[in-house]
Amino acid sequence: MHKNRINILGTEFDNFTEKQFQKYLSDDMDARSNKFIVTANPEMVLSAQKNPKFSKVINSADYVIPDGIGIIKGAKTLGTPMHERITGFDTLMYLIKTANRKQLKVYLLGAKEEVIKASAKRIEREYPQIDLVGYHDGYFKDNQIVIDEIVQKKPNVILVALGYPKQEFFIDEYRKNIDAIWIGVGGSFDVFSGTKKRAPGIFQKLNLEWLYRLIKEPTRIGRMLAIPKYMRLIKKEKKNAEN
Ligand code: UDP
What we know:
Catalyzes the conversion of GlcNAc-PP-undecaprenol into ManNAc-GlcNAc-PP-undecaprenol, the first committed lipid intermediate in the de novo synthesis of teichoic acid. The protein has 243 residues and is α/β, with parallel strands linked by helices. The chain is built from 13 helices and 8 strands.
């Protein structure tokens, strides 16, 4: 129905506006559809290039959204511009607000124990119409115990924060057990819980969130070197297409 996808170095992104995407999600929630959302950034695109299993899982998701200005820039450079960036964090907030409005059941999985507890507390405080059916930190050994609990609680929305590619592999393996909206949200609970701050508005406006994160967590430098590498590969791909 909305399969207008743009291929960026092998990862197929949905090309729609955030508004259109939100309408699909709202309809999915009403229909209790089984949907898998991947929010992918340049790092994940590179990782998928090296890991065919991860690539297959991403490309089999129902929605793959461009979480990162690098994806929008890459699409433009390749001559297949996309509507707009849609961040994982904004998608998480949309799902939480909509679940509250529709009075749905939500399950939180992942992050450190204190982070997930603080996230659950924030939901209970600020989104009281959500039926928060359970939560579990992301440092468990036995997947089966966790999935059995999730299935038994019958959530409509399952927010999974295990970092990539773990969260996508987890969702791909277990989504068949229960019809729900499944999304991998990376480090979003760290921000949602107030444990980590999101970049101030000015950084967001200038598309410099990455710089803010680097200042706060210099150890991320290794991960961030993925971005120039990604841009080099995009330019190479463009050259190949021209020849
Ligand atoms: N995490 C987890 N279990 C693991 C590995 C990671 O719950 O086995 C959590 C971690 O605590 C953090 C999130 O997954 O909340 C990943 O955060 P990161 O900032 O690395 O992800 P990004 O948003 O960059 O994908």
